[in-house]
């Protein structure tokens, strides 16, 4: 496993580098498919942040932690990653077990999800306020429309805090 350590707003000491490499290196014995681990350490005032990305056989496991001390941030992020690694490993094991017991061929189990519903409608140019009103009237969590001011297709969505979000393409 290749461990890359990046630092922001601080200098990397040998002790800190050794500590991070030792803690992250332990994951290699649980999952031998880890190709790369990227550790980002940063300090902003009294916030010490550790963020780790593990590349595991094409997928990424990611965790971050913010505490008052960098060593405890590393410990906390390692605990979070340990839970994710266990969950990932259990998922792999359960997939292997279900493949052996199933009468369905393995090729059909690995197919992508299929589209079960297809809906089409005219997208009319409208203002942002009109789109928000239309979305409320239809009681939907998102609404696709052509923005009358820019002419681009936009997506308006309802956020968890009750406000709206807007997704616009960049030209």
Descriptive account of the structure:
37% of the residues lie in helices and 32% in strands. With 171 residues, the protein is of the alpha/beta class. The protein has helices spanning 14-25, 27-30, 70-101, 106-109, 128-138; strands at 2-8, 34-44, 47-56, 59-67, 125-126, 142-147, 153-158, 164-167. The model has no long low-confidence stretch (mean pLDDT 85). The protein has two domains: 2-101, 2-Layer Sandwich (Double Stranded RNA Binding Domain), CATH 3.30.160; 125-167, SHC Adaptor Protein (2-Layer Sandwich). It is extended and about 60 Å long.
Range of strand content = 25-35%
Strand order of the largest sheet: 1-2-3-4
- Which word captures the global form? extended
The number of helical elements comes to 5
Helix and strand run: EHHEEEHHEHEEE
The share of residues in helices is 25-40%
CATH architecture of the largest domain: 2-Layer Sandwich
Largest sheet: 4 strands, mixed
Core attributes:
171 residues, alpha/beta, Double Stranded RNA Binding Domain, SHC Adaptor Protein, four-stranded mixed sheet, 8 strands
């Amino acid at each position: 496993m290749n461990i890359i350590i990046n630092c922001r707003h601080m200098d990397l000491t040998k002790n800190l580098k050794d500590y991070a490499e030792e803690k992250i290196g332990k994951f290699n014995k649980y999952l031998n498919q880890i190709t790369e681990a990227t550790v980002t350490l940063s300090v902003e005032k009294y916030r010490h942040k550790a963020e780790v990305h593990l590349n595991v056989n094409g997928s990424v496991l990611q965790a971050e932690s913010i505490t008052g001390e960098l060593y405890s941030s590393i410990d906390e992020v390692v605990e979070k990653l340990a839970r994710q690694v266990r969950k990932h490993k259990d998922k792999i094991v359960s997939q292997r077990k279900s493949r052996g017991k199933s009468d369905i061929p393995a090729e059909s189990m690995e197919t992508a999800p299929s589209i079960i519903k297809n809906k089409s409608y005219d997208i009319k140019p409208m203002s942002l306020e009109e789109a928000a009103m239309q979305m409320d009237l239809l009681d939907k969590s998102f609404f696709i429309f052509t923005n009358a001011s820019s002419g681009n297709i936009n997506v308006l969505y309802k956020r968890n805090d009750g406000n709206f979000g807007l997704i616009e393409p960049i030209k």
